[in-house]
């Protein structure tokens, strides 16, 4: 019997019977390392340009924000020409660490209790640097005045006046004193006009906050004259961003909103400027 010659079908069968070479996969440890690096880079981008976590180190923002609350700060609002507005709760670097006028020494605003979180560790320190854990070393206050504003304490009802318009802060502050600016141990002080690129900030806990009013120098001034506010203003360049949410504790998780009292204040100032 003669052997049949090899044809196309037998060649195809031989090809199909050969095992295909498997695609080479990355080792698990390399894949895990790559994912970790990508996660760190993404966290750094988010921290630098979008959102950063902080914690509340003191009682100065009570009743709205309590000691050790964890908050989120968004930076998008202040991109480009965006700047802090009256009523914003902002996180900022210590003005005492910023360069002052020639020959002028800046006074630190932070005390030792506000430098770091209450539970520091190597892990939390590393996570904080890449934006995955709340950090300390910053201050949290509410913007009361912006460039051009004059702040006066206080009217007959104990309210702050911004450009001659009273601010009703009763809905968002804590205060056991008779006026809304008690940190100078007097209800008779003023500051402004606020220079360009500067802010006047105060804590919502009016009588327990080392804020702009606390750093005024009113010694030796004549009656009704402005205090020396050279150490009291916060440079806009020191602002990290605007607080928009509290994420811990879970029982008080929610958005941090601008009080409606500032809408009324802004409208009244706009009307008198027309």
Contiguous low-pLDDT stretches (5 residues minimum) are none
Percentage of helical residues?
Answer: 10-25%
Strand content: 15-25%
Arithmetic mean pLDDT: 78
Backbone CA Rg: 29 Å
Number of DSSP strand runs: 12
Succession of helices and strands: HHEEEHEEEEEEEEEH
Structural class: alpha+beta
| Euclidean distance between termini CA atoms | 114 Å
Oligomer kind? single chain
Shape: elongated
Number of helices: 4
Largest sheet: 8 strands, antiparallel
What does this structure look like?
- This protein is α+β, with helices and mostly antiparallel strands and 274 residues long.
- 19% of the residues lie in helices and 18% in strands.
- It has helices at residues 8-17, 28-49, 122-129, 261-273; strands at 51-55, 70-74, 89-92, 139-145, 151-153, 161-162, 165-166, 189-191, 198-202, 234-235, 239-248, 254-255.
- The strands form two sheets. Strands 1, 2, 3, 4, 9, 10, 11 and 12 form an eight-stranded antiparallel beta sheet that branches. Strands 7-6-5-8 form a four-stranded antiparallel beta sheet, with helices on one face.
- A hairpin with a 2-residue loop joins strand 6 and strand 7.
- The longest helix has 22 residues, at 28-49.
- The chain starts with 7 loop residues before the first helix and ends with a helix.
């Amino acid at each position: 019997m003669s052997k049949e010659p090899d044809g196309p079908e037998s060649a195809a069968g031989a090809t199909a019977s050969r095992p295909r070479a498997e695609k080479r996969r990355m080792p698990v440890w390399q894949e895990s390392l790559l994912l970790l690096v990508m996660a760190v880079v993404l966290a750094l981008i988010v921290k630098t340009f979008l959102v950063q976590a902080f914690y509340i180190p003191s009682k100065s923002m009570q009743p709205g924000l309590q000691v050790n609350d964890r908050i989120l700060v968004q930076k998008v609002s202040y991109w480009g020409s965006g700047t802090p507005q009256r009523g914003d709760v902002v996180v900022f670097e210590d003005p005492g660490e910023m360069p002052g006028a020639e020959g002028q020494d800046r006074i630190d605003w932070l005390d030792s209790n506000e430098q770091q979180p209450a539970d520091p560790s190597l892990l939390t320190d590393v996570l904080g640097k890449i934006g995955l854990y709340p950090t300390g070393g910053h201050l949290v206050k509410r913007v009361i005045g912006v460039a051009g504003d004059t702040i006066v304490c206080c009217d007959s009802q104990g309210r702050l006046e911004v450009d001659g318009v009273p601010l009703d802060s009763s809905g968002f502050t804590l205060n056991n004193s008779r006026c809304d600016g008690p940190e100078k141990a007097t209800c008779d002080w003023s500051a402004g006009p606020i220079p360009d690129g500067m802010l006047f900030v105060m804590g919502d806990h009016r009588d327990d906050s080392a804020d702009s009013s606390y750093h005024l120098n009113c010694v030796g001034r004549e009656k009704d004259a402005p205090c020396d506010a050279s150490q009291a203003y916060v440079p806009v360049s020191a602002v990290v961003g605007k607080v928009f949410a509290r994420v811990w504790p879970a029982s008080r998780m929610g958005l941090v909103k601008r009080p409606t009292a500032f809408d009324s204040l802004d409208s009244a100032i706009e009307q008198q400027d027309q």
